[in-house]
Amino acid sequence: MNGTVSILGVPFSKLTLEETTLHLAEQIENKRDKLFHLITANPEITLASQSDELLQRIIQSADMVVPDGIGIVLAARRQGNPIPERVTGYDLLLKLLEQGNKRSWSFYFLGTDEETSRQAVEKIKHSYPRVRIAGRHHGFFDAAEETEIIAGIQQSKPDILILAMGAPFSDKWLHRHKSELAGVQLVFGVGGSLDVISGKVKPTPPVWKKLNLEWAHRLLFSPVAKGQKSRWRRQSALPKFVYRTMIRQMIRR
After folding, report:
1. pLDDT (tens digit, 9 = 90+) per residue, 9-32?
2. What φ, ψ does residue 185 adopt, rounded to 5°?
3. Are 130 and 76 in contact (CB under 8 A)?
């Protein structure tokens, strides 16, 4: 691996999307004895970790943290230790589905609402016919259902467990149940990626991605699930993140 760069104490991987995909494929093919926990962290999650001790511990114990946001890339550049590119949960999911289609990996999808979950998995089956679906479940479950979900994951032992319950809830959920998920090779959260795959949310047009304005497209056009903070409130974390990283850099100098 090409090492990491620390931004507000979060150790971000410096691998590209392609390099990350190859590294994860190696972990999966080697059939590790314990699961590989990957976190996709953006400026909002990085900032939240400053005041959330549990989230800090989860991030530090993760096997890899990838930069899911242009703000992370710019902060690393300002530190003189550049990250080559963003590695978003959505792009990484698509890359692993491509690899899974070649290698017949199994996936379990946990999160989002029932209809979106069903539609997303149906489209994945159609687009990646050699991917094995180990199971799926929506993210609005009670304690009894949770027990059944964990039992189902234990029984199916998917190569990859995809969590679509939002950050940092997905990673905190995994932290609580990590010891029960032996046999799973890779786990990571994908935010609203299943919403895009299902067609519920339109994908970001390439020109917006090229200009690193994916966040703006989501802010303007993507719906917010019930119970989540508005995107305008969430984006208010960005100027705080920029301020914190600049002050930290000035102090270091």
Report:
1. 999 999 999 999 999 999 999 988
2. -90, -40
3. no
